[in-house]
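quick one, 206 residues, struct below
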Amino acid sequence: MSTSDGETLEGEIARAEPRARAMCVLCHPHPQYGGSMRSLVISELFRALPPAGITTMRFNFRGVEQSTGSWTAGEGERRDVAAAVDLGATLEPDRPLVLAGWSFGADMALATTDDRIAGWYAIAAPLRYTTESDLTRITDDPRPKLLALAEHDEVRPATEVAARAEGWTDTDVVVVPGASHFFVGRTDRLVTLALEFADRVIATAA
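---
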């Protein structure tokens, strides 16, 4: 897919089985720390969602693997998410679209408020690559949001993120017991939360 500033992004699409109930776009963790669309949590969601009727797309941010361009500290990466949402909405134009991300990808997802997004699933969002204006927009946005936090997050404590998200409109915060920022051994819980949230978004959009 192509971005508005001319970069070409690598991505993969897994079609829903047997037919789509929703669309999900996945945003991977920090490119400067080894994050890619093949990272653990993204891979598990990419595997699990299509059999539940959710067409799923994952992509590499600019400068990662086969995607052109280079790291821009979140500025160009917002354009990457916009391009992914645009393609996702085209793939399943009559289905609600969930924008999901892990870590840096969660921040980029929450910074994207395209009208075609039906809900956000933010996993271990550090809320460090979102601006105050981003957070103001997402705070007041009436569409459903789910923040899944790690009990033992090494990047930013779950209590800090939960406090920052207090008062956000239509937002649920779930802390995954025993989990670190990387959710090793806890990805099954993230998949369950994703499926439950997708059902909620689908019902809301009906």
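The domain at 11-205 is CATH 3.40.50.1820 (Rossmann fold).
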